[in-house]
Amino acid sequence: MLIAEPLQKAIDELSKLPSIGKKTAQRLAIHLLKNDRETVESLIASLRDLKEKIRFCQECYNISVDETCDICKSAKRDRTVLCIVEDASDVISIEKTNEYNGLYHVLGGVLNPLSGVTADSLKIKELLHRISNQEIKEIILALNPNAEGDATSLYLSRMLKEKSVRISRIARGLPIGGDIEFADSATIGRAFIGRIQL
């Protein structure tokens, strides 16, 4: 079946987005086609603003509209604690918990030599510079619990051992509401290792 060229082009572009297959892209494109022009123009404007107005914070490399992000500018944050994350999306997830009140450092990825991501590709030099020039007392490694995240955490912890800072890693284990019966053995093992005293 032939699809009108503008619709096919929209489907092709939407399917390039993460987690969007051809069928979902087709549903989204048809949904946009059915919407009024004002709604579509609003979406286009927000995407244009995203590319034109967003930049990376010069201190932590989080997303920002200014040279320095709101977190780095805030006088209410604990400036002695630094949480290391892979991407800006991790900052958003951690901030939603309202459990952390320190600063961040976004690496811009994790070590993955097979994909060509080396220490020089990440914001590690900038991290070392921050630690040397700021009064950081604790570094929290909040990287994903996978092979690349573990390798990056190990690399950073070895590199930072000579610094006079406390290094910790976020706990891993069973999710709230999860059943032990359905958890894999590695997750259960991590839950026992990371247990806390009551």
What's this model, at a glance?
With 198 residues, this protein is of the alpha/beta class.
What would your notes on this structure say?
The structure is a single chain. With 198 residues, the chain is an alpha/beta fold. It has two domains: 5-53, RecR Domain 1 (Helicase, Ruva Protein, domain 3), CATH 1.10.8; 76-169, 3-Layer(aba) Sandwich (Dna Topoisomerase Vi A Subunit, Chain: A, domain 2), CATH 3.40.1360. The protein has eight helices and six strands; from the N terminus they run αααββαβαβαβαβα. The chain is globular and about 65 Å long. The termini are far apart. The model has no long low-confidence stretch (mean pLDDT 91).
The class by helix and strand makeup works out as alpha/beta
How far apart, in Å, are the first and last alpha carbons? Answer: 64 Å
Order of helices and strands: HHHEEHEHEHEHEH
CATH topology of the largest domain: Dna Topoisomerase Vi A Subunit, Chain: A, domain 2
The global form is globular
| Low-confidence spans | none
Note the main sheet. 4 strands, parallel
Counting structural domains, the number is 2
Number of strands: 6
CATH architecture of the largest domain: 3-Layer(aba) Sandwich
